[in-house]
Amino acid sequence: MMDVSRHPTFLALQQIIHDASDAIMEIYQKADLGVEHKSDDSPVTAADIAANRIIMAGLKALTPDIPILSEEAVVDFEERKDWQQLWVVDPLDGTKEFIKRNGEFSINIALVADGAPILGIVFLPTTREGYFGVTTEWQGIEPCAIKWHDDDIENISVREPREPLVAMTSRSHGPALPQDLKETLKEAYEQVRELPKGSSIKGCRIAEGIADLHLRRGPTSEWDTAAQQAIIEAAGGMLVAPSGKPFRYNQRDTLLNGHFIVAGPEVAPVILDWYQQREDD
């Protein structure tokens, strides 16, 4: 079996995301980030646009037969509803963090097949950390979850829970863990530590075994979660709705996600039970 780090498709995706990162960081160093606002009042910067241009061109060259859905190139459902495969792209996840210049933003690229994310690649431009996961064989790449930093590449997996239990929380989209959930978690794990971060960094930290869970109750879109879901699942974890079902993509007119949970297989049932009890009450 070919080492994934030498596979030409992985290398091509890595180059695309590195090129997009370089464009983002060039703008990040400027005084003027080119901030504008979309119709929904969410911010967009010159870096979002530059990275999107690079990623779109790179993916079209790599896989000309696979269409692309991007936050900066939204396609109507009537056009995309019959797409069996598609790339789902967020060229700059964590735009608010980018504007705040706190370094907590990422680039997300996912491949979706029949609604399921089967490949994900996430890159953190400020730290030069990359994450890659494949849940099913694709173009000769076997299922795997890896992290790279410069020339160092390692296999990653979710960890068994330990003390303290680390909960990733949102930097800009609170709230933090509900107090009653924290008390529920403390029944099984005495110490619970909350660690705020922006963008898909939260899911990647769980995939690599640094943290244990993330509960998201604020708004997200499909391009925010698809790539990290593939990585998390490839690493042995799960990204699921409160029902326990994994997210599926390009299945509805809306691109908005509902609430979701990211965790390993031991912690997730505790949170799902907490959700069920809230609904029963």
TrEMBL record:
<feature type="binding site">
    <location>
        <position position="71"/>
    </location>
    <ligand>
        <name>Mg(2+) 1</name>
    </ligand>
</feature>
<dbReference type="Pfam" id="PF00459">
    <property type="entry name" value="Inositol_P"/>
</dbReference>
<feature type="binding site">
    <location>
        <position position="90"/>
    </location>
    <ligand>
        <name>Mg(2+) 1</name>
    </ligand>
</feature>
<feature type="binding site">
    <location>
        <position position="90"/>
    </location>
    <ligand>
        <name>Mg(2+) 2</name>
    </ligand>
</feature>
<dbReference type="GO" id="GO:0008441">
    <property type="term" value="F:3'(2'),5'-bisphosphate nucleotidase activity"/>
</dbReference>
<keyword id="KW-0997">Cell inner membrane</keyword>
<dbReference type="InterPro" id="IPR020583">
    <property type="entry name" value="Inositol_monoP_metal-BS"/>
</dbReference>
<dbReference type="InterPro" id="IPR000760">
    <property type="entry name" value="Inositol_monophosphatase-like"/>
</dbReference>
<feature type="binding site">
    <location>
        <position position="224"/>
    </location>
    <ligand>
        <name>substrate</name>
    </ligand>
</feature>
<feature type="binding site">
    <location>
        <position position="71"/>
    </location>
    <ligand>
        <name>Mg(2+) 1</name>
    </ligand>
</feature>
<feature type="binding site">
    <location>
        <position position="224"/>
    </location>
    <ligand>
        <name>Mg(2+) 1</name>
    </ligand>
</feature>
<comment type="function">
    <text>Converts adenosine-3',5'-bisphosphate (PAP) to AMP.</text>
</comment>
<dbReference type="GO" id="GO:0000103">
    <property type="term" value="P:sulfate assimilation"/>
</dbReference>
<dbReference type="GO" id="GO:0050427">
    <property type="term" value="P:3'-phosphoadenosine 5'-phosphosulfate metabolic process"/>
</dbReference>
<dbReference type="InterPro" id="IPR050725">
    <property type="entry name" value="CysQ/Inositol_MonoPase"/>
</dbReference>
<comment type="similarity">
    <text>Belongs to the inositol monophosphatase superfamily. CysQ family.</text>
</comment>
<dbReference type="GO" id="GO:0005886">
    <property type="term" value="C:plasma membrane"/>
</dbReference>
<keyword id="KW-0378">Hydrolase</keyword>
<protein>
    <recommendedName>
        <fullName>3'(2'),5'-bisphosphate nucleotidase CysQ</fullName>
        <ecNumber>3.1.3.7</ecNumber>
    </recommendedName>
</protein>
<keyword id="KW-0460">Magnesium</keyword>
<feature type="binding site">
    <location>
        <position position="71"/>
    </location>
    <ligand>
        <name>substrate</name>
    </ligand>
</feature>
<dbReference type="GO" id="GO:0000287">
    <property type="term" value="F:magnesium ion binding"/>
</dbReference>
<keyword id="KW-0472">Membrane</keyword>
<keyword id="KW-0479">Metal-binding</keyword>
<feature type="binding site">
    <location>
        <position position="224"/>
    </location>
    <ligand>
        <name>Mg(2+) 2</name>
    </ligand>
</feature>
<feature type="binding site">
    <location>
        <begin position="92"/>
        <end position="95"/>
    </location>
    <ligand>
        <name>substrate</name>
    </ligand>
</feature>
<feature type="binding site">
    <location>
        <position position="92"/>
    </location>
    <ligand>
        <name>Mg(2+) 1</name>
    </ligand>
</feature>
<dbReference type="InterPro" id="IPR006240">
    <property type="entry name" value="CysQ"/>
</dbReference>
<keyword id="KW-1003">Cell membrane</keyword>
<feature type="binding site">
    <location>
        <position position="93"/>
    </location>
    <ligand>
        <name>Mg(2+) 2</name>
    </ligand>
</feature>
<feature type="binding site">
    <location>
        <position position="92"/>
    </location>
    <ligand>
        <name>Mg(2+) 1</name>
    </ligand>
</feature>
